[in-house]
Amino acid sequence: MLIDCLMGFIDNFFLCLGIGGNMVRNIFALFVGFVAIFGAVFCPSNAMANKYPDVKVGGLIAGQYVYDQTEDKLPSNELKFNYARIQVGGKLNDNLGGLVQFKAKSGSPAISVAYINLDYFPNTNVRIGRIKSPFGLEILEHPFKNPIISFSDVSKDIWPGCDMGVKVTYKHKYATGIIAYQNGNKVALVDDNDAKDICGRLVVAPVKGFDVGGSYYMGKSGTYHLATNRYGVEANYKAGPLWLRGEFLNAKSAKNEPIIDTVRSVGYYALATYKLLSQVEAIARYSVYDLNTDTDDNEKTNITIGLNYYLISDTWNRISLNYEIRNDKADEKIGNLLTLQVQILL
Questions:
Q1: Residue 41 confidence (pLDDT)
Q2: Regarding beta strands 96-103 and 77-91, do their DSSP bridges make them parallel or antiparallel, or are they unpaired?
C-alpha cells in the first residue's frame, strides 16, 4: 500500500513536468536498486562502516643540537633536523592495507617507504613496495625505538637499505621468519641491472624476553653485477629495567668496477640500557667497525653514553643526551660528539 501511494505520487509529479509512462518507474526502480546494492557492498553494517577504512595521518620529528669536537670542524656546533617525516597508512579491511612515508632530506628520494600489506593467510604478511631489507636488528626497527640517537657505524654501512621488492613474513609462537626479493639498488626507485637480491632473516624466541637470530643477504650491484654478500647474528634480552642487545655483521663486496676488488668489512656492537626511573633511562654502547680487513688503518671504535628522558611513559617521545667518544684510525683529527635531541612521534 505504501509503495503504491509512493509510486502514484511520483507518477503525478513527473506528469506535471510532462514526463510519464513506464520510463519513470524504471528509472526509480534502477535508482532504488543501486542504493540497495551500494549499501550492501560498501556499508554492510554500522560496525563495519565505523571500522573501515581505518586510515591515519602521522609523522615523526627529531630536532638536534650537535657539538662536534673534530679538529677544524666547521661548523663545530649546529641546530638541525635528524628526522622530519610524514606518513599516511592504515587498513581498508582485515586483509588489505598500506603505508606511504615521505622524508625531507636533500639528495635522496622523497619517498622513504611505501608499501601494500596483504594479510590473507594465517600468521603471514606479504608486503610489496619500497621496503626495508630484512637484515640485522638495529636499523630494521623504527628509528625512534633505538635508545641511542644514532645507529652504530657497522649497522649503517653494512645494512642493505630500503629497496623496491616483495617481502614475506611468517610469525610463529617461538620464531619469526622473513624472506625478501628485491632490486638491489637502494639509492634509486628503479633497478640498475637484471639481477635481483635475496635477503632472509630468522629470529627465535625460546623464552620470554630473550631472542636470537641471524640474517643473510645475497645480491649483485651495478652494471657489472658485482657480488654483495652479507651475514649477521644478533641477540636481544629484556628483563625488568634492563635491556641488552648485540650484533655481529659481516660484508663481502666486490667494488671498483670495472677493475674488480673484493673488500671484506666486519664489525659488532654491544648495547645496554637501564631504567633508573619510570621516565629516565641510562644508555651505553660499544661498537667496533673495520671497513677493510685487509688493511690496518681504517678501524673505527666508538663508545656512546647518555640519558633518555621520556616525555610520555611507554612511548618513544623523548629527550636524549648522548656523548660519543670516537676513534678513527683513518682520521686522526676526528673528535668526540655531543648530541641533544628531542623526538616526537605523531
A1: 44
A2: antiparallel
CATH 2.40.160.10 in the chain is located at 60-83+137-345
* pLDDT value, residue 125: 97
Backbone φ and ψ for 314, nearest 5 degrees, come out as 60, 30
- Tens-place pLDDT, residues 18-47: 555 555 455 445 444 444 444 444 455 554
**What parts of the chain have a pLDDT lower than 70?**
1-49, 105-109, 186-193, 222-226, 255-261
User: Is residue 260 a contact partner of residue 232, using CB atoms and an 8 Å limit?
Assistant: no
pLDDT of residue 4: 56
Fold for the domain defined by 60-83+137-345? Porin (2.40.160)
pLDDT at 249 (0 to 100):
96
Q: Tell me: the pLDDT tens digits for 73-109?
A: 888 899 999 988 999 999 999 999 999 998 876 555 5
71, three cell numbers: 679538529
Phi/psi for 288 (5° steps) reads -135, 135
CA distance 274 to 242: 5
- C-alpha span between 83 and 111 (Å, rounded): 13
- Per the listing, cell 636470537 goes with 212
